[in-house]
Structure formats: C-alpha cells, structure tokens
Specification:
It contains 17 helices and 15 strands. It has helices spanning 2-29, 52-55, 167-202, 205-225, 227-232, 239-263, 278-288, 295-322, 326-352, 363-442, 448-475, 478-483, 485-500, 517-538, 568-571, 576-588, 612-615; strands at 34-36, 40-42, 70-72, 80-85, 92-96, 101-106, 115-119, 136-138, 147-153, 159-165, 503-509, 542-550, 553-560, 591-596, 602-609.
Amino acid sequence: MREYRSMLRTIFWCIFGLLVVSQTHGVQAADTGRKTLSFQVLRDVPQSADIADFCCEDARFSFPDQKVSSVRSRYGETSIWLKIEDVGPYALIQLNPVLDDVTMFARPTDTSAWSRILTGDQVANAQKLFSSPFMALPLPEGAETGVIYIHIIQTTALSITATAWKLSPFIEMQAMDQVLKTFLLGFVFALIVYNVVVSVLVRDPAFLVNALCISSLLVLSQYLSGYGAVYFWPGKVGWSNAILATSLFFSILFGSLFIWLFNRDELASTRAAWPIFVGLASALMAAMSAIILPFWAVQLWMLASAALFFVFVSWFMIRHAMAGDKTARILLAPFGLAVMPGLSMIGLNKVFGVTLIQLGNNAMEITLCLEAIFFSLALASRIRVTEEATLLANNRVLALRNESATKAIAAQDAERRHLSKELHDGVGQDFLVVLNNLKRLMDIDLPAGIKASIGECVGAATTALNGLRRISHDMHPAMIEHFGLEKAIHNLFDNFEKSEKIRTRLDLDFDETSVPRDTELHVFRIIQECISNISRHAAATCCELTIKAKGNRLEIVIEDDGVGLQPQAVDEPNGLGFVSIDERVRTLGGTWEKTEGLLAGLRVCISVPIDDNAHE
C-alpha cells in the first residue's frame, strides 16, 4: 500500500508540474498579439478550381453570408475554400491543426496580382515562403485590409481554425514552444533510454517493448505538432501520411505486446489474452489494405483500430482487476489516468475542436511524458510485486523444506525410540538371560579349562550387554523423560569424559519448565552430535558447554581446544553431523554458526526459541 501511495503522489506532482508549464506557456502567448478569425466557408468545390473562380464578377462560386470561427473537414473531402475579410494589422495567419496542403491568395490592391503562399505537411519546405510547424501564412504588405482566400486540401476529418498574429508575438510564441518541446522530448527520450537499460539489467522484455511503444508515440507526436515535416523529414513530400499510419500501427502493436507481457505471469493461459490483440488484428488488416484503399480510408480504419484497442484493453484490465489480479490493477491506474484521457483530449481537439484543458501545441508531448512516467512507475511496481511473489514462493519452499525436515527428524526419533526399546527390552533381555546362565555354569564343578572359557564368555557377554545398553540409551535418552534435560546433559558429559578422557566444563543456566519437551529432545540431540564430532575429529583435550536462557531463546555454545575448522572445510559441504545439526536448528526455528573458539578449537553457537509461538 505504501508503494501505491508513493506512486499516486508522484503522478499528482507530475501532472501538476506539466499543467503549470503548459498553462504558463498559454497565458504568455494569449496577449494582444493575436486574434481568432471568423471566415466564410465554401465546400464541395472541385480541386481544380482557381482564385479566378471566386474573386471576379463572373465568378462561378459564391460564399454564403454566414461567418464561422471553425470548419470541420470530412473523410474523403478534398477541397475547402475560406474567405477572410479585414484581417487587421497582423503579419500572418496561422491555421490549426496541421493540414495536408494549404494555399493562401492575397493581394495588396484590387489591381495587383494575387500572391500564392503555400504551407502544409504535404508541401516541400522549398515551396513555403515561411517554414514553420505552425502552418503560418505570411501576409503580403498591404493585404491585411483586403479579402483573403485560403484553399485547403485535406482528406481526413479535422476541426480547422484560423488565427491572425503579429510577427513579434508569433516568433516569441514559436521560440517558447520550441524550448518547451525540447525539454519534453528530452525527458521522453531519457525515459526511453531508462526503459532500454532496465530491460537489459533485469532481463524483462516488457521494458524494451514499452520503450518501443513510447518511441512510436513520439514519432506520432512529431506528425501532429507539425515539427516532423519541417525538421525531421523536410522535403519528403508524402511522407507525413505514411508516417502517421505507420506510427499508429506500431503504437498499437507495441502497446498490445506491452500489456500482454505485463500481465502474462498472471494469465491462466495465452488464450485468455485475446482482448489485448483485437485492436492489433484490426490494425494489421488496415495496414494490409493500404495497397487498395485510399489513405483517408486506411487512416480511418487505423483510428478505429486504436479505438478497439482502448475499448478491449480497458475491458480486459477492469475484468482482471476486479478478479484480484495485482498486475492488472497496477496497469489500470496509469492507463486510465494518462493514456485514455490524454489521447481522448487530443482526438476531441483535432477532430471536433473541443478543448477540455488548454495544453497549447504540446498536448501530445505532455500526454507522452505522463504515459512514459506512469508506465515506467507501473513496471517498477510490477518488479516489486514480482519480488514479493518470489519471496513468498521462496518462503513457501523453505517452509515446505522445514516441514519435510521436521517430519523426517520426527520419524527418525520415533524409529530410534522404537529400536531403543527393542534393543533394551528384546535383545538386551536375551543377552541378560545368556549372561545369567553362563554365571550359573560358573558355580558348577567343571574342569578348570572349561570354567576359564565360560569366564571369557561371561566377560564378553557383559561387555556386549553394556554396549547394547549404551547404544539403546544414545538412541533414546530416557533420562530426559524421567529426570529432565539438565541431568541428561550432565550424564551425557560424564560418560563422554570417562570414555574419551576429555576434560569437560558445564555452565547451565536455564529453567527446564520453560523448555518444551520436543525442544529438549532436539537440544539434547544437537549437543550429542556436537560432542560426537569432537570425539571423532577434534583431537581435543577439553570441551566446554554453556547454555543460558535469554528472553524467549536458548543460547548454546560448545567449544573445544582441538584442531578447529580445517581450511578445506570452508569450500567443502558440511558432513552428516553438521547436516543433522542444521536440520534440527531449522526445525526449531533457530540459527547457528561455526567460528574459531577462544580455546583455539571449534566454537559452535546455537540460538533456538523456547516459545511455541516463536517456532511458528
């Protein structure tokens, strides 16, 4: 939840900062240096019509008296004429948005020739009197008080407006726009590089696909802003329409792949992702139809494919988010807060002329910045979710491993208890019967040689019976059940000191009543395994054991003055003795380590909880 709050705060401040920048830019431009123009519109005019068909007394076409401030082109329409009167003391006319082909006819006096000024993204820069991404048409000197005609050739649906500018404010506005756009595009480019680098570092193709999707939208933004035709592909007449369709297609392609890669780990099957690819399938068919359909039809189909993409992807993410899919929830926030609102506002403004928020000429770049920020944050959140899922899986594996070890140790202890009982009550009793019979034979008057042989048998049987009892006791220390852990440890070390001729010292300071019975058995087995290792490998002369209770934990330290931990043991796996210790410590939920002791030998430090809740 903390990550989500942090993400939302970041989103809020990014939106706030970008809106402040765009609004400031808009306010500075909105001064007395510009004026929105009204004009008369004549449609359905043949494209071959010329200025003479409108301006002269014998003109074939006449404009209606009604004036409007905007006109909307239609798909497939090729020719629109605008008539503007009394522009006023302004230096140029700007049309919005970017159009295919525009010709302005103006003349200073009624007797002078008509000047033809060209602009548009389908017009080569060499033909433009004033090269600008803002569809600027400079007025000839003295033409501001006369009648101006503008011929627009446009095959796609757009809402067209006209604005008159004084030269100085226009240049200032264009310079400010270039600075802001450079900053925004640099920010977007930095995020593209960031996604590529992260994709390489974490080996996640979703970051790379996100970078490609942002790059496609970046190309689309350059088309929509007019900067592409002026600065990036100048002189390439006809490229703009092809670039528009291509960038739309690749935006849908990489967007579909990104959403699929983002959610693939949570999908039950690949077939469940079909809504993600509906828009892509439609866009692919539109691209294939480009060889037989006119461009405006292909573009309309491509825009419809983008709409299908947004509708089906939104439905897919909402459905999966409501079903509890964490990745869908993470993706739904940026998708619903940045991409859908931003592109919807751009579409409403370009096609219908509806302006919800004034973002100037940088609406696409601001939307792109938000998209890049939000989806990068979403990818970072997905990494966190993936890490949490991996951690939970590792914890589950560890829990299963500990559970398996606990069951194995419990089964081993049960088997030892059973074998101990069998040895003590079964084989031990049989040995005792044999020993007693041999002793009775010693009381019978037999030859000395036979009595000597029987005596040897009595000695061997006694030794075997004592060894059998010792093995039975080691397999199941019944003394713990009868006398407690402390006395069992004292007995263990007394026998160890006698049998191995090793001096021992015990420092036991704990309350036996606070130690669960299962923990007592595990602790005894751990200590038993430690002194067994000392006996077999340490070549020690003394051994010390310290057990102290600290809070709800039992701290155990065993050290000797033997050869210590050999250098080769660092790189070699632990022996079976240490494996047994490790399994029992993990079963108790404790920790342990091997270090060099104060006595120059091996020091084993063990810490185990003595509270049943701590075990869990």
